[in-house]
Design goal:
The complex is a heterodimer. Chain A is an alpha/beta fold. Chain A contains eleven helices and eleven strands. Chain A has helices spanning about 30-40, 60-65, 75-90, 115-125, 145-155, 170-180, 200-205, 255-270, 295-305, 315, 325-340; strands at about 15-20, 25, 105-110, 160-165, 185-195, 220-225, 240-250, 280-285, 310, 345-355, 355-365. In chain A, strand 10 and strand 11 form a beta hairpin. The radius of gyration of chain A is 20 Å and the shape is globular. Chain B has helices at about 25-35, 65, 80-95, 115-130, 135-140, 145-155, 170-180, 200-205, 240-245, 270-285, 305-315, 330, 340-350; strands spanning about 10-20, 25, 40, 55, 105-110, 160-165, 190-195, 230-240, 250-260, 295, 325, 355, 380, 385-390, 395-405. In chain B, helix 11 links the parallel strand 10 and strand 11. In chain B, helix 3 crosses helix 6, helix 7 packs across helix 13 and helix 10 crosses helix 11 (about 305-315). In chain B, the strands form three sheets. In chain B, strands 1, 2, 5, 6, 7, 8, 9, 10, 11, 14 and 15 form an eleven-stranded mixed sheet that branches. A two-stranded antiparallel ribbon of chain B has the order 3-4. In chain B, strands 12-13 form a two-stranded antiparallel sheet. By secondary structure, chain B is of the alpha/beta class. The chains are: A alpha/beta, B alpha/beta. Chains A and B meet through helix 4, helix 5, strand 4, helix 6 and helix 7 of A and helix 4, helix 5, helix 6, strand 6 and helix 7 of B.
């Protein structure tokens, strides 16, 4: 089987340290053990049942984040900061780069719907419509988590929040690739966070997402860079992203989405000089329920050609919305760690936004 | 000659599609811009009862059904409608409505995405004390829909990307689109921004002491603050040589940009960081401060922004900065669309040799005594190079440099 040879988008994006934060567990080691065992479609996975935890046990923010100063942060910011801390712990602190040139790219769906809803509610129910908490106003903008994380870690390079929903992770990785390739930043932290909104809590056990899955909160972060560092103590990458393709479907019906996904899958593997049959592993946004039929249909050619392993983290973890793609990338890295002899084989990550955008990413291990 | 050497292609602005409180469509917008029209007044989009400040810059009588060819407006929120109409108008202005490469990408900047959709759903929660949760409510609130709406209206199948970097998001979208063309990944891109006026932003800015009770008077000694606005703006960006070969009208060239993050405070602007962003933009474009003939300011008319932005300009530009005007005096603060409108205004300033005015102006803030704010009336001037500023909550800064498209 050929190893991944060709490169699109320059030299690719190296993935250094990473971490995830979920209601069931936190950190690379936990996720690696749990997801590799439970994520495949070979019948061993146990779908997340709706009675499981949907919120991360953050407790007191000061203890969760290990220092003072988090009292006005919204949950998205707290979760994102915790994930970045975890990612930095995985690599030598010095290798995380100097703040002035470190970029940050964060994915989201609609920001903190919780913060917006409660702020809006205060304008309705309070004695005066302007009796709102000024400290919570910044929490209502979609880039609040990215802004708070930049303050927390001192990241002053390019800072972007991409509202991509299920595509956010793939789009954020692609944006980081472009920033580093164009030398707009050297190190880019890429991640995302979703909190359970007031809607989720009000519904009790029926915590449905638009796709019909169970909505949970969570976050993820990756430290990335382009081109190998020359310093001999620079951290070795755990994997690298070689090609990313996204496209807009001509309609939001399942057939259009499936067709568009099939297109970007073919384009992405072609970008790296491979065929679909060369893909060893795919981590998709499918959750094994009927709601994912658009993505499942779009994957069918890929799954039938080389019979790759198919990981579905959403089945094991639940639906973390815009963080899903990061969970998928993490699952691939965990698989490379568990199956080290496969590290030169290509893996793919796919996502479908029911609003009409699809994406596919090709990566390899190290 | 490419100023940055031959590693980058040149990027032209060939179409302008504004949906604004002073006009819809390039001709109406341009005429109003240079006439110093005022698009602000009493807000009707939501109840302002109980607010001491009741003005904003909303778009009245917006009829998306008449302006859209493909989309059914009933299926999309207001911000998405703005963006789709803006994209349609921009392509028409560029003379590309009949034939174009449908694989082009659309990059959109926004602060609050589909803010009115979230307010509608939140209103049900407030009134009923329980959510009659319709999954489609939340789906309509997704920020991704702004860019998707524009792609769907034009039948584009390329990238649809929404930058949610607050009030500099327009420039963020334009900057990324610039990179796509400059580095050879695309020949055509549409970029801009959109936001809809909403009650929660009005309340928040008022509570911060940043909201004006009357008009928006940037740089004025007696300014009261900003006015929340709304709108959508799209610019068609093309490889310059391709634009020339098809005989396109070229408003201006985008030469480069700078983007950084304060990493200091979520709301208060940071002078050192803004200065650094200006220097990044000028360096990226290989333009020196003395070549800039016009600065389209972020100019929200808050006490803090105008003084901080002014001090940063003075620091970078020295004793004789170029004229600085703020179109927010006319448009209000259109949030994620604001720096997109600023880039459009800068391109038109270059193309027409006219400086947009800062209206509602009486006396300069004593801390800005050096400034020429182009008070109240547009002024003829040769604009070889222009700078457009965008700053936002979260410390997100993005600045774009433009130039006239001479040989």
């Amino acid at each position: 089987m050929p190893s991944v040879g060709g490169m699109a988008e320059g030299a690719g994006l190296e993935l250094l340290g990473w971490s995830v934060v979920t209601p069931r567990g936190i950190g690379r080691a936990w996720y690696q053990n749990d997801i590799v065992v439970h994520g495949s479609d070979d019948g061993q996975s146990t779908p997340q049942d709706s009675a499981g935890p949907t919120q991360v046990a953050t407790g007191r923010v000061k203890e969760f984040l290990g220092r003072r100063g988090g009292s006005s942060l919204n949950r998205s910011a707290v979760l994102l900061i915790r994930a970045i801390q975890g990612a930095l712990e995985e690599i030598d602190a010095a290798a995380s780069g100097d703040g002035d040139s470190t970029g940050l790219v964060v994915g989201t769906t609609a920001g903190s719907v919780e913060s917006i809803s409660e702020f809006y509610r205060d304008t309705i129910v309070n004695e005066r419509p302007y009796f709102v908490d000024p400290l919570r106003f910044p929490n209502t903008v979609m880039n609040s988590a990215a802004g708070e994380a930049a303050i927390w870690f001192g990241y002053r390079g390019p800072n972007a929040t991409l509202a991509g929903g299920p595509l956010a992770a793939i789009q954020a990785i692609q944006h980081a690739m472009r920033l580093t390739r164009r030398e707009r930043a050297r190190t880019v932290v890429v991640g995302g966070a979703e909190e359970c909104s007031v809607f989720d809590r009000a519904l009790g056990s029926a915590r449905a997402t638009p796709a019909g899955g169970v909505a949970i909160e969570g976050s993820a972060a990756f430290v990335t860079r382009a081109a190998p560092e020359c310093a001999k103590d620079a951290p070795k990458p755990q994997g690298r992203v070689l090609a990313v393709r996204t496209a807009t479907a001509l309609g939001d019906d399942a057939r259009s989405l499936a067709s568009a996904l099939d297109d970007v899958i073919r384009l992405a593997v072609d970008d790296v000089g491979l065929g679909m049959e060369d893909v060893w592993l795919v981590a998709s946004g499918c959750d094994g329920t009927g709601a994912d039929h658009a993505e499942a249909a779009g994957l069918s050619a890929l799954l039938n050609s080389g019979r790759p392993r198919h990981l579905m983290p959403k089945r094991a973890i639940g639906d973390v919305r815009s963080v899903s793609g990061f969970m998928q990338i993490a699952a691939v890295l965990a698989a490379y760690e568990a199956f080290h002899e496969r590290r030169s084989r290509a893996a793919m990550v796919t996502s479908v936004d029911p609003n009409g955008v699809v994406g596919a990413l090709v990566m390899r291990g190290e | 000659m490419n100023r940055t050497g031959d590693r980058r292609r040149r990027v032209a602005i060939t179409g302008v599609g504004p949906v604004s409180a002073i006009g819809i469509g390039r001709e109406a917008f341009e005429s109003a811009l240079f006439r110093g029209a005022c698009g602000t007044g009493p807000i009707e989009a939501f109840s302002t009862e109980g607010f001491p400040a009741q003005n904003g810059a909303e778009i009245r009588a917006f009829e998306p059904g008449r302006l859209l060819n493909s989309l059914d407006p009933d299926e999309w929120g207001r911000s998405s409608q703005f963006m789709a109409v803006a994209a349609r108008l921009a392509m028409r202005d560029a003379g590309l409505e009949r034939s174009y490469d449908r694989r082009a990408g659309i990059y959109v900047g926004t602060t609050s995405g589909e803010s009115q959709e979230i307010e509608t759903a939140a209103r049900r929660w407030v009134d009923d004390q329980a959510v009659e949760f319709v999954p489609s409510d939340y789906a309509r609130a997704a920020g991704s829909r702004l860019a998707i709406a524009a792609s769907r209206e034009l039948g584009f199948s390329g990238e649809s990307l929404t930058f949610a970097t607050a009030c500099s998001a327009g420039n963020a979208a334009l900057s990324s689109a610039f990179d796509r063309i400059a580095y050879g990944d695309a020949d055509l891109m549409i970029a801009g921004g959109a936001d809809a006026i909403c009650r929660w932003a009005h309340a928040g800015f008022y509570r911060l002491g940043a909201l004006s009770g009357s008009v928006c008077s940037p740089f004025d000694a007696h300014r009261e603050g900003l006015l929340t606005g709304e709108g959508g703006i799209a610019l068609v960006m093309e490889d310059l040589e391709i634009a020339r070969s098809r005989g396109a009208r070229i408003y201006a060239e985008i030469l480069g940009y700078g983007t950084n993050c304060d990493g200091a405070h979520m709301v208060a602007p940071n002078q050192a960081s803004i200065e650094a962003c200006m220097r990044l933009a000028l360096a990226d474009s290989r333009v020196s401060p003395d070549e800039i003939d016009y600065i389209c300011a972020h100019g929200t008319a808050t006490k803090a922004n105008d003084l901080t932005e002014g001090a940063a300009i003075r620091s970078v530009y020295g004793e004789a900065p170029p004229p600085v005007s703020s179109i927010k005096s006319m448009l209000g603060h259109t949030m994620g669309a604001a720096s997109g409108f600023g880039t459009a205004a800068s391109a038109l300033a270059i193309y027409r040799g006219l400086l947009p005015p800062t209206i509602n102006f009486s006396d300069i803030d004593p801390g800005l005594g050096w400034m020429d704010p182009v008070p109240n009336s547009a002024r003829e001037a040769e604009v070889r190079y222009a700078q457009n500023n965008g700053f936002g909550f979260g410390g997100n800064n993005a600045i774009v440099i433009l130039g006239g498209a001479h040989a």
